[in-house]
């Protein structure tokens, strides 16, 4: 083996070792970012590891003891393959990866957010490289490719609160002012803030009323929607207002001024009260994922605080022992949530 060939092989070996070290460092940083819940940083390190692999491949081809013609042919073939992958990315996993990078850059939604896309509604429980996982109101897990999310409008319920509404139709024989007062009372009963009533439609046989109010805690969205409808029924029936369709009115066979009202309900016993809200059952995985992300972020902040000296650290953060105790508590909670996530 002549000296130029040996030199080329040694250079290739050095390139491979350097690529392995850089790739390993990128993977280590990616895993560290995943442990801390910093998914966007993890994606960047994953892309960096792919870039290292591509650059190392090109360098190895250039450094191999090959003729200029053979080297040019191999590089041309590699370029054609890369071009083909990019051209084919509109319908492959590469497109989903690119769409995932775009969604993370835009930060349209995050883990724990309620989103709706093409009548698919639920809470985000996980975000991967190629897909987003949504936990629906039936507690099922819906996997949506990132390419689908990037090409369709997404409705994200704001974390600071949302508007909860309910509509119903009532006859023209009822006073509008009285109905609005009753609907506002029903909305206030379920603790909706600043309730208001709109008339959506003046139909041939009925008026469509829509009562709305601001809900600050979006985590109770399902329960509040149901409670609002319950409150509307109880309030209107309690005031002697019947809620029936025109067809039902035309078909009943009793006196003209009789009303179709349910019997007076008995007082609810303590055992009748609902102890568990729907959100605790329906969105359990999404809630755990959101809590896990927040705890990992808090753990990262505690680790950064611990690096500061006592003089640099604000007094309200506590001393080293207090930070160590809180860090241990956070680590235990993270371990519990990670165990739950593995079982889910």
Q: Can you tell me about this structure?
A:
The chain is of the alpha+beta class. The protein has 4 domains: 3-91; 106-156, Roll (SH3 type barrels), CATH 2.30.30.60; 162-265, Alpha-Beta Plaits; 283-343. The protein has helices at residues 3-35, 39-63, 68-87, 93-106, 146-150, 176-189, 221-238, 246-251, 278-282, 284-307, 320-343; strands at residues 114-117, 120-127, 131-136, 141-145, 155-156, 162-170, 193-202, 207-215. The strands form 2 sheets. The chain has a 5-stranded antiparallel sheet. Helix 1 runs antiparallel to helix 2 (39-63), helix 6 crosses helix 7 (221-238) and helix 10 (284-307) packs antiparallel against helix 11 (320-343). The radius of gyration is 31 Å and the shape is elongated. 17% of the residues are buried.
Please describe the topology of this protein.
Blueprint (H helix, E strand, L loop, with lengths): L2 H33 L3 H25 L4 H20 L5 H14 L7 E4 L2 E8 L3 E6 L4 E5 H5 L4 E2 L5 E9 L5 H14 L3 E10 L4 E9 L5 H18 L7 H6 L26 H5 L1 H24 L12 H24 L1
Antiparallel strand pairs: 1-2, 1-5, 2-3, 3-4, 6-8, 7-8
Helix pairs in contact: 1-2, 6-7, 10-11
Mean pLDDT: 78
Enumerate how many helices there are, as a single number: 11
Order of strands in the sheet with most strands = 4-3-2-1-5
Strand-and-helix sequence, N→C?
Answer: HHHHEEEEHEEHEEHHHHH
The top-level CATH class of the largest domain is: Alpha Beta
Low-confidence stretches: 269-275
Helical residue percent band: 40-55%
For the record, the count of structural domains works out to: 4
Ends apart, CA distance between termini: 59 Å
Secondary structure category:
alpha+beta
Which word captures the global form?
elongated
Strand content: 15-25%
CATH topology heading of the largest domain: Alpha-Beta Plaits
Total E-strand runs? 8
Cα-atom Rg, whole angstroms? Answer: 31 Å
- CATH architecture assignment of the largest domain: 2-Layer Sandwich
What profile does the largest beta sheet have?
5 strands, antiparallel
